Amino acid sequence: MLINVHNLVKRYGNLLALNHFHLRVEKGEIVGLLGPNGSGKTTAINCILALLKYDKGEIKLFGKTMTPQAYDIKQKIGLVMQNVAVFDELRVEENIDYFCGLYIRDKALRRRLVQEAIVFVGLEKFRKFYPMKLSGGLLRRLNIACGIAHQPELLIFDEPTVGVDPQSRNSILEGIRELNRRGATVIYTSHYMEEVEQLCSRIVIMDQGKTLATGTTEELKALINQGETISVEIYMLEPEHLARIRQLPHVTRAHYASDRLSVHYDGGEHNLLDLLDYLKSQDISFSRVFSEQPTLNDVFLEITGRQLRD
Amino acid sequence: MFAHIYSYRLKCLLRDRELVFWTLLFPLLMATFFYFTFGHLTSEQEKFEPVPAAVIDNRAYRENPHLQQVLAVLSTAGEGRMIELAVAEEAGAEKLLEEGAVSGIITAGEPVGLTVKQAGLKQSILKAILDEYAYTSRTVSSIISKNPPAARLLVKELERRPTYTEAVSFSGVPPDTMLAYFYALIAMACLYGSFWGLRNTIDLQADLSARGARRSTAPTHKLQVVLSDTLAALTISFIEVLVLLVYLAAVLKVSFGNQVFYILLTCLAGCLAGVSFGNLIGTVIRGSEGVKIGILIGGNMTLCYLAGLMWVDMKYIIATRVPLLSYINPAALIADAFYSLYLFDGHHRFFLSIGLLCLLSALMSLISIFRLRRERYGSI
Question: What is the mean pLDDT of residues B315-333?
């Protein structure tokens, strides 16, 4: 096991930021740490990296207890932070070389790794640029290059795509997948559902400092009491028909508005056929039909609640 | 690793244009300002104008060759000229006095008379000259009447006119009050090394910057990073002070004596104190970067003010009334080290100042390292 966080408690005064938090990561996984703002994701990462003091619990990385002096463990970790952590006074290539040099002493090896990192994030044309001259997306890519240049075994990405355009975001996600294919284990924190769903092999949903659920996307979807949703465009639906549709097997909710009937199910295998059979049998004319499976967003909202967060 | 961190730190700091302006260009501008304002005023104040006076051309004057000779010497053009003399009839002299063309009328006789229209510095100078003449005349007459053989020796002694006091520095350079300002300015430039120290601590602490957080996660010993960064800051600060010294000496022609090694040692110790002061503020003061910068600027200005940068007498007021403050104020110690080099031949006082500076720097650095060595933070 690469990471084993057990029973972690972290308080900021009276605020309980991590409430007996648990996390296990196996080698080769991409684990998504998913939670609303203030749920404790970044606090957990900072504790794992031995940047923050914590009140209780145990953190083991690569089988050893993580401490600020555990330089052998730190050597194997790469960090890409939420805030861009580069020097404005150093050019793109110098920034990458500087941070890589904190890990790699061999100059020839470092030179090669820096070049690889530049190519990897696609900053070849911007080697001599100062960070101030880069766009938001390019700056994020530089931030990533500084964290991955030394080719660590464990990569921690803390919301690396905040404020990034879709093209850059896609490029970043593809890069992370590639790093994982090359053997890196990845922890990825975000509150963008689609990113996590698309990228991670396992997801940990946390809120108020606690682990609420963990599993693959499918496993998480199975946790919630929600199946597919079928929508049908109907020009005229009498209330008595809507009432009868609500009586069909596995239907949990049904409503009709703006010429559209939406029917929610909690399971069942032939829901679409059953609904269409009913509509035909009653000579109800309809046009387009849609079937939607529950998304990670539904799972997230179901688990963490729908109320607004500060 | 040390060289890697050090070289990149040099690049980072040198490319920080704002800091380079405040730590290098600002002292140069201040030096130029001092030179063209205070320097000019001081030289004007110190310039002596001969006092215009009239002597009445009467019988007593014509029969007094001694007085004629004394006045002739004092009014001869040259560096020692003290009187601008007009010889006139009584009515003419009175007219000159009335018109303000002369400050006083000398009337030969026993005693020699001085008529003035008003009291003032020029009139006092004339009175002092005549008093000295009268005193010397009486002394000579008295010696000749009581001991005639001593007359020859007396004449010799009077011709020699020995001076028993002279304002000179022990190190053989002429004294200059303007130097006090320039010394305080160099002290300020040394203390401006604190800006580099502060910048270092911000880039080192995970709770102050993302860069600090990233550097804290690297497998590099914190002390190694602290020392590399501090050495880079010290290098830049020292070079900047050297540039200021060269500018003062070569362009503004400010004389610092000829003890180059000790002058450089003072600058180095001063810069070390400056960088350490910045480290201290960056690690001990709680608050944002803006708060720390504000406190640092205020602190620097206060220390320089107490060392006499804005008002040169303040240094002496502090030294006489709160001497302890002089011993713990790095700016005062730097200025004092320069003074002692300039004014004294021995190095006792110089090494006392340098020793205290180093002690202060060591104390500030120890506190900073103690604060920086904590590697886990309460909050980020």
Answer: 85
